[in-house]
């Protein structure tokens, strides 16, 4: 069957692009368009490049499973690489909107998503986030047009703190990527950990994309820390955990973080990833009918188990397109109004409810540990160790 999904890159002259963008800046279309255009801005290179292609796979499967159409029109997706940098994200989002994108999907990094959020708000274009976790993305009143269906750093750092208490850690050494969202998250954890009687015995802030953590690993080895808190993700967490394993830090200390580990990280690290604990976003072992169907379809199409990035992207896009379909309208304002306060009973991760006040999906939180996988699973997998209900990891939404 011929796919309705088309992946293209737009290259328009600046003057033509601006004129087209203005033409599409209204709240509704005068007539039904020929296609439903989605602009996807993800990291296909840079520190978070390990996630972008999986997000693309998840989105394209969500579209394929609904016959490639919404509101009776074929869905067309144009993918752009933001290089894990906000400036390219701005440039490419602007280009996609200029070519008539009716919604924007992305990004991976929170800095890029916040930059996209500002453009989407200005142009009144719906914007769907399924990966970036900075709490500022879904602050009450932040944007009418941006929605997040995935985790926040707030819920993940609360799970990391709960893990620290459950393990009765006494002394923690923190390693945080020098990036605003992770610095904010570490600062919250540090304060709350100290309130709980946990001593912070050291902290380092390596730059994004750092390739040599040996000096940090040496400082941790010489410290009396019984826990190593890593506030980083992507290639940073792979490199840090691998180098920590080379000096045996995981044998004598608990390595954990809000969102450092999934099958992608474990595959990149190898055997020394076993025992690492982390907040988990989507996971292919969640036991419900919707997830089983998705995993089967994903494995059939891509010959691999879906990553957290793929699962979250599929789940968010499927939810969004279902809501658009139910409106029966091409008016973007109606899509936004319908998605705010909507409920996804058949999410891959269980029930999700979109908060109307901040456009953040309330959902269960998953915490897991890397263990050896069993065929046909990957060699190393996340085993879900604990589930946190929304009331334990979300604050009440206040306007």
From TrEMBL:
Pfam families: Peripla_BP_6
Signal peptide: 1-30
Keywords linked to the UniProt accession: Signal
SUPFAM superfamilies for the chain: Periplasmic binding protein-like I
UniProt superkingdom: Bacteria
Domain Leucine-binding protein: residue ranges: 37-371
InterPro entries for the chain: BCAA_transport, Leu-bd, Peripla_BP_I
Family, per entry: Belongs to the leucine-binding protein family.
Protein name per Swiss-Prot or TrEMBL: Amino acid ABC transporter substrate-binding protein
Organism in which the protein naturally occurs: Noviherbaspirillum sedimenti
């Amino acid at each position: 069957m011929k796919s309705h999904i088309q992946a293209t890159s737009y290259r328009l002259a600046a003057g033509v692009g601006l004129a087209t963008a203005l033409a599409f800046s209204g709240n509704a279309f005068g007539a039904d368009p020929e296609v439903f255009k989605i602009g996807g801005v993800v990291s296909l290179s840079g520190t978070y490049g390990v996630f972008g292609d999986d997000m693309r796979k998840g989105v394209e499967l969500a579209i394929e499973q609904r016959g490639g159409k919404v509101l009776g029109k074929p869905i067309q997706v144009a993918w752009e690489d933001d290089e894990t940098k906000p400036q390219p994200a701005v440039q490419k989002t602007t280009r996609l909107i200029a070519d008539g994108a009716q919604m924007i999907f992305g990004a991976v990094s929170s800095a890029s998503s916040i930059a996209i959020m500002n453009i989407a708000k200005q142009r009144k274009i719906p914007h769907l986030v399924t990966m970036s976790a900075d709490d500022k993305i879904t602050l009450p009143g932040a944007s009418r047009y941006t929605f997040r269906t995935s985790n926040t750093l707030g819920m993940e750092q609360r799970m990391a703190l709960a893990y620290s208490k459950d393990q009765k850690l006494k002394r923690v050494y923190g390693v945080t990527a020098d990036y605003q969202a992770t610095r904010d998250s570490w600062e919250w954890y540090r304060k709350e950990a100290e309130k709980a009687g946990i001593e912070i015995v050291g902290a380092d802030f390596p730059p994004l994309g750092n390739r040599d953590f040996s000096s940090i690993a040496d400082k941790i080895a010489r410290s009396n820390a019984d826990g190593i808190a890593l506030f980083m993700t992507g290639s940073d967490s792979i490199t840090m955990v691998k180098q920590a394993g080379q000096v045996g830090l995981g044998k004598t200390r608990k390595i954990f973080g809000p969102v450092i580990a999934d099958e992608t990280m474990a595959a990149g690290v190898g055997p020394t990833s076993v025992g690492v604990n982390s907040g988990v976003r989507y996971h292919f072992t969640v036991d419900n009918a919707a997830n089983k169907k998705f995993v089967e379809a994903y494995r059939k199409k891509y010959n691999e188990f879906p990553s957290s990035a793929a699962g979250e992207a599929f789940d968010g896009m499927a939810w969004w397109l279902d809501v658009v379909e139910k409106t029966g309208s091409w008016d973007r304002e109606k899509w936004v109004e319908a998605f705010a306060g909507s409920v996804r009973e058949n999410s891959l991760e269980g029930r999700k409810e979109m908060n109307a006040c901040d456009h953040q999906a309330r959902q269960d939180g998953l915490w897991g540990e890397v263990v050896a996988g069993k065929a046909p699973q990957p060699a190393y997998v996340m085993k879900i160790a604990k589930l946190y209900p929304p009331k334990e990891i979300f604050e009440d939404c206040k306007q």
